[in-house]
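Components:
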Amino acid sequence: MSSLLYEWGANILHADQHQDHELGLFFMRVEWALDGPAEAPLGSASSVSEPSQSFDFAGFTSRFTPLAAELGMRWKLWGKAHRPRVALFCSQYLHCMADLLHRWRAGELRCEIPVIVSNHRDVEKLAEFYGVPFEFVASGRREEAEARQLELLESKGIELVVLARYMQILSPKFVSRYPESIINVHHSFLPAFTGAKPYHAAHTRGVKLIGATSHYVTDLLDDGPIIEQDVARISHRDQVEDLVARGRDLERIVLARAVRWHLDRRILCYGNKTVVFD
Amino acid sequence: MSSLLYEWGANILHADQHQDHELGLFFMRVEWALDGPAEAPLGSASSVSEPSQSFDFAGFTSRFTPLAAELGMRWKLWGKAHRPRVALFCSQYLHCMADLLHRWRAGELRCEIPVIVSNHRDVEKLAEFYGVPFEFVASGRREEAEARQLELLESKGIELVVLARYMQILSPKFVSRYPESIINVHHSFLPAFTGAKPYHAAHTRGVKLIGATSHYVTDLLDDGPIIEQDVARISHRDQVEDLVARGRDLERIVLARAVRWHLDRRILCYGNKTVVFD
Amino acid sequence: MSSLLYEWGANILHADQHQDHELGLFFMRVEWALDGPAEAPLGSASSVSEPSQSFDFAGFTSRFTPLAAELGMRWKLWGKAHRPRVALFCSQYLHCMADLLHRWRAGELRCEIPVIVSNHRDVEKLAEFYGVPFEFVASGRREEAEARQLELLESKGIELVVLARYMQILSPKFVSRYPESIINVHHSFLPAFTGAKPYHAAHTRGVKLIGATSHYVTDLLDDGPIIEQDVARISHRDQVEDLVARGRDLERIVLARAVRWHLDRRILCYGNKTVVFD
Amino acid sequence: MSSLLYEWGANILHADQHQDHELGLFFMRVEWALDGPAEAPLGSASSVSEPSQSFDFAGFTSRFTPLAAELGMRWKLWGKAHRPRVALFCSQYLHCMADLLHRWRAGELRCEIPVIVSNHRDVEKLAEFYGVPFEFVASGRREEAEARQLELLESKGIELVVLARYMQILSPKFVSRYPESIINVHHSFLPAFTGAKPYHAAHTRGVKLIGATSHYVTDLLDDGPIIEQDVARISHRDQVEDLVARGRDLERIVLARAVRWHLDRRILCYGNKTVVFD
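Structure:
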């Protein structure tokens, strides 16, 4: 690999590996710039992305494919200039949505957001403020709603769907259209408190920490590969309302991290788990 | 209450209240010194406990009982001079045991430890070093083992049983003899991963944080009132062995906190939850 | 106190005490509802505030003043119906501002925000979106700028000034007009890395955690009573830009908590410290 | 590198890289087993170390040296079978010492501990229990004390000195004998509260989190490269004694992590910072 990259004039910026000895799997993430602008300061995304536009993707691919096949590798190649197209879904709670939009505007999330979809109208003004087209899709019959949603996503060329506290369960059919490309935030420390009303359940159980989890969506509810989790300390003084309020901060953060890592191609899925190269 | 304490010459050091509006319950913890040594520096436990020995427990009780009855109060009164008698149970893993014994020796835990009980002999030398009598009780048939254990506990006047990674499940009969007086540490963030091998389960699920929980033991396995929980961040790089190693630090800490709080009478149980006045 | 409140028909919802034995000080915070609507659900702010409007503030004050004087108490009384008037200041970084405004809109912060002040124009659209009047005050000569700012604050009846990453240092004269009523967020774990460019300093020192601190502003830079702090783990992989990005989440959270606690009258200052009754 | 290792029959278990683009430095840590026992389960340290004993260190070195020189590399090579010889120093507080010794006995720390040195006698029994020779060296005149200590360390072939709450300041002369090989724990979140009595200083300043820091010792007090830090939340209720008690848990953990990472050769120093490959 290193030799090949060297040959193609790549200046490796980051290289991460991971080996799962149990399963006999090897994972690698390599980020490189082209030789010319080796003086491009790290983190200066725009200057790094410049050369990658002139990178000969097709040539590299035809050269690398047989090598990868020989090693039994599954691989993907991205140019940093490409900004993935992301759809944001939400229901009536807007804290995650407002947070993602602000981060996007501030340049923290390298993507396009061509559409916001909701079964509520609360988000409309926020969408407008950030200049993102808003599409209302009533929840009604799921089959119809999803047909409309999928049509929208397709027409907008969406590559990643982010469920920013979207309270409808997606059908297996929908999920299968975006494998490892739908990120959800669940307001508990999974696998504790799956399903509805996790803060109520946490309060009833009397836990001393509450959590939030971002994960890829699979057919099984709240069961997909976990991307990020965080917790906050609570006490007997905290009522359900307090857990909800404390939890909002956790949800915002674990969802935003998951989206950023996904966009930066830092996440590899295998089995029902993730490798996150941070 | 305040007036009564005032009348008895009590100088209130700490007073904590909590109201569960949902259940209509009110909780209170009051810690006081007698008037004389009001200059006793807070935290200087010995000087505070001195006067409480001369406190007229019987007199106060007969005066307070009708008042409490009128208000529908359940109450308890302790003198700080009394050092509860604690039995420590363990199996082959000794990290929690070594930690508790060191804290005890260092004065962090205000109690007597008249006996260490184990179904393994690994702890014997440690017990000897700290000068605590060790009793080996083979796990064998649970009924017999527990009969022997209960006999021991009774003969030693034990008030609190601490399960410091004791890997046997106690019978309802045993548990009923020490209501809200058996503290266990479970090596997961309950209610996630109850039962055996929680670190394996956590690894399989691919969580990003592992946890540990200390709780009172009830008839239902890993279901009693939670006293304390803590978590540590892990990553895809961590194998089960790493989780076990990281987890040991969590277990030590959540168990030690629970024991200290219990000894300091900071924990009130209700329903299946705890109020911890820290 | 309890008797007096009882007499006035108060139904105590929360009562917190703290004693500083070293300094011989006693702190108390009591939150109550009036007897009538004792059935008002806790946390339902609007219904709780209703009765307090009819509370006889003047009568209670004249009754309580001599008692307080006798006990050497400094005290304040607020009705929950009163929503404090808050001015938000910022410079070019908008993450704290966007966060506070979203929380305000979502009902997390019980206050009015009659004005946003900045020495930059970046915040203008955001202010407009949330319907808050925006005032540009060029930094230029501090004396003039502050004169204009103070005039604004006075005309708007401002009770609390929140510096949401406002990068100008306020003069002692300004500070003296709002004692314990200016909240700042500093992007380090104070007292480490006071002054300018704390993330650069943290990177140079090679710390393994970065922090953020919210505090009341006093004459000494970054030295006022600390209200809240939080930290996040970093590693050698993180460059200054990464610290800045990670830090933004900390800043948002510690500032929002400080503002909420101040508005809920949970903070008492003494010496150069705070008591926060959460 | 990879090619050379491949040629020598190395089966790479872990490989970590880090690049400091600012300073133009590149860091790498590679851990490998020999081909034969490639089936050696990861984490099973003993089986991994077996083959490394038969590794041709001299041959590899003579082959690698010119390559390294060409690339301007500073490098070191260790066999896992070698257990570094560690001296533990302490004064009267024994919590870190007891913790390290327990971890060592439990197999968490891969090293020999041929000596414990103290200017107090409190640790003597603990040393005896763990079968470690104890040497009392009175603090008295530093020059004399250090001469005696250095003599001891030399005679025991010590490679790493761990200051487990050792309250004497080492001279530059002493420090220069063990460059990047003396680990200290400081009971604050450095660089805040350097020097004596950090918990008192933290209490006076009114911080909301306390911390502990493990670091390599250099000539400047509390200024060496930071290895690990952690913090715990405190409140206005906590007096200095409480900070001390809470802090003990932090100190134990950050020191133990630093020692383990050092022994596992996970730490690289540069400038005044560390790269920790975990």
